[in-house]
Amino acid sequence: MNGSAVRARGLVKQFKRTTAVAGIDLDVPTGSFFGLVGPNGAGKTTTLSMLTGLLRPSAGEVSILGADVWADPVRTKARIGVLPEGVRLFDRLSGRELLLYTGGLRGLGADAVAQRAEELLWVLDLREAADRMVLDYSTGMRKKIGLAAALLHNPGVLFLDEPFEGVDPVSAGTIRAVMERYTASGSTVIFSSHVMELVERLCDRVAVLDRGRVVAAGEIAEVTDGRPLHEAFLSIVGARARAQEGGLEWLGSSAG
Amino acid sequence: MVGIVCRLKLSLIAAGLRGNPAGTVGFVISLFVGFVVAASGFFVTMRMGLAFEFGAHLMVITFALVALGWGIVPILAFRSDETLDPARFALLPVPPGPMAGALLAASAIGVPPIAFTIALTGALAGFAATPAAVLVGALAIVITMLMSLLLGRILPLALAPVLRGRRGTDVMIGGLVGATALVLLLEWAIITSAASDVDAITAALAGAAGWTPPGFAALALLDARDGDFGIAALRLAVAAAAVAAVWWLWARMLGRALADLRVSEAGDMKVRGRLGAPGLFGLAPRTAAVVGRELRYQRREPRRKAGIATMMLLFGVVLTMLAPISSGELGVGTSILVTNGALTALTLVGNQFGLQGSALWSVLASTASPRELRSELLGASLVAALIGTPLLLLFAALNTVGVAGGAAEPEVWAASIGSTLGAFYLALGVSPLISVYFPYALPDRGHNPFAGPGPGRGMVVTLTMLAAMITVNALAIPFYLLAADLDAWTAAPYALGAVVYGLAVAWTGISLAARAGVPRLPEILATVSRPVT
């Protein structure tokens, strides 16, 4: 591994009175498969948005493959692929149209785009649905077509926000296989997830976020210290299981 | 239920204003405008009471016009009141009837309904002398306002499924063109038959307006003034029955719309692939990609189709307004032609990032330089021009024939075409700038593509549009100066010059907006992807 694919220093995001991200330092080595985990509201999406130039940080610096995201957007945007949370796409285009459009937007030649699009549609098992509007796709299909659009220009670093959320096991397997093949060639993947088993199996490095801060980061083995990631995560963020305590006596005993 | 829903609307309005200085300023201005409308309306309707038969006719026309305006304006201005998204109530164990009643009561809360109610109350002061007549008048006003609120909600709801379908839009546009032609013909007939007699025209219009439910209610007030309480009660009952029928229809349509929230009529139908027209027109690949996307969106997205429907309605209204006032004289209608051209552009691309919503991130992820953003803005403007130009040419032709009859001189044609298209292109230059500086989020409503910009935002959007209109009109000063003095020799140069000038401004506006927009893109994305309640 030579140098950082992504390097963030003192990243802060303030929304009026709330602090979503309270000073994050991250180093993602080139060629790594990097997992970003944390409870809901920990700041994962905000962090990924700031890393990819979609959300302006209140403070801090980000560089991707040596170029500053906010000072040199032309270079960085050409080298990254993004699959944001919720995957809001131009969903009144068909899957194939969306890929051809994205290729045009990325300035790729028409023939190259057409060829890449067909291969991606085939690998991601979307060929049958390629001529239907993305609007009519299931969640798994939307994630897959979003992934295809993010990969089309062969980026050096791929950012995925919750790529497995709401996705059935078959589609999740397809997405995983594509991601693994992509990192095997030396490219970098950074993704956020709630699914600890998946993060543990796929990633070589992980960062745990809680309340806008990195509370643990490093190689998986360092962070888990021999425990399953799931357990390590709960002990790091401090599980708050109020449901086992008092209250809710009225729940479940009868209707009304 | 009514109380809860009304309180909910009040707290939504308050929440829309909290921490939003622009929204607060907008709300204060709308309060002021509401006050002016209420006060002047009250005074005018009161004065009608002094003008005997003529005033009575005007009062009946006013009642009908208020209801008609409430029905049409939400479609024309994309301001259907959807502060309370009916879909949010679909899971509650409340039957559609009471739900519709509560929603209707909630839609009476707001500056415009209150202002118009006060304005109509002037009729009580002007026409009702006895307590009984006041009671009849008050009921007539309530009936008229209920009808207004109902029409304002039922028309967008009725149009929505048409807009979701593929062919429906074409049918509707054809229908609007036909309706406009019919109104024009009717207007022509009225003008030619009784051109000079204002009293006769008013009486004829009042006769027609008197057959609408609000007109019927207004007539009841006149009967009560004359002491015919039996007839007054009968008229009120009929008008109230009409309101009840529309209410029942609305409740049913609402229930059906909410239980049938298909997003696309196409369902799983296949759409044809091969995006874009790269190479065609010699466009850069990026611009061609945007053109391809926008062309498909115009065909497939209800909101865009709603925009085209709005344009057609606007054309109809403008045409019917222009024919009588310009009476064939050159230059008289220039301001209306300019306004029409400008509104067309603003409707199509006045908030282009808002139309993309949160999908804008994918543009942002690949846009880093002004050149790249220019492709985006240029692509959208090209498609707007592709749609707007032929429609405006048709409009200009209809206008020329409407104003000057079949044998129009070349200068009439040139004034009409040049001013309309020129202003359209001028506004295509202003639109990207307001898209960049004043973007706003649009609510995502499967059942109502006309839903407005959310609580507390309406006035800000109106002010932005107003500023854009002033800018276009300032840029159009050459049209105002030249259009009136055209002759056979200057006609063609004027039309050509106006178009070239407009295109030059459009290109300049797009370039300026691209340069200003790139550093603002993250903020624009944050603004337009914020969910609208």
TrEMBL record, chain A:
What main location does UniProt list? membrane
Q: Name one GO cellular component term.
A: plasma membrane
Keyword Transmembrane helix found? no
Q: Give the membrane topology, semicolon-separated if more than one.
A: Peripheral membrane protein
**Residues covered by the ABC transporter domain:** 6-236
Q: Which InterPro entries match?
A: AAA+_ATPase, ABC_transporter-like_ATP-bd, ABC_transporter_ATP-binding, P-loop_NTPase
Read off the Pfam families from this record: ABC_tran
Q: Which UniProt keywords apply?
A: Antibiotic resistance, ATP-binding, Nucleotide-binding, Transport
Localization terms from the record: Cell membrane
Alphabetized Gene3D superfamilies for the sequence: P-loop containing nucleotide triphosphate hydrolases (3.40.50.300)
Q: Does the keyword ATP-binding apply?
A: yes
Q: Which GO terms describe its molecular function?
A: ATP binding; ATP hydrolysis activity
Q: Which domain of life is it from?
A: Bacteria
A single GO BP term for this record reads: response to antibiotic
Annotated CDD domains: ABC_DR_subfamily_A (cd03230)
Annotated protein name in UniProt: ABC-2 type transport system ATP-binding protein
From TrEMBL, chain B:
Q: Which UniProt keywords apply?
A: Membrane, Transmembrane, Transmembrane helix
- The keyword RNA-binding belongs to this UniProt entry's keyword annotation: no
Name the domain of life this protein comes from.
Bacteria
Q: Where are the transmembrane segments?
A: 25-46, 58-78, 98-120, 132-151, 171-191, 203-223, 229-250, 306-325, 345-365, 377-401, 413-438, 459-482, 494-514
Q: What is this protein called?
A: ABC-2 type transport system permease protein
Can you name the source organism? Answer: Murinocardiopsis flavida
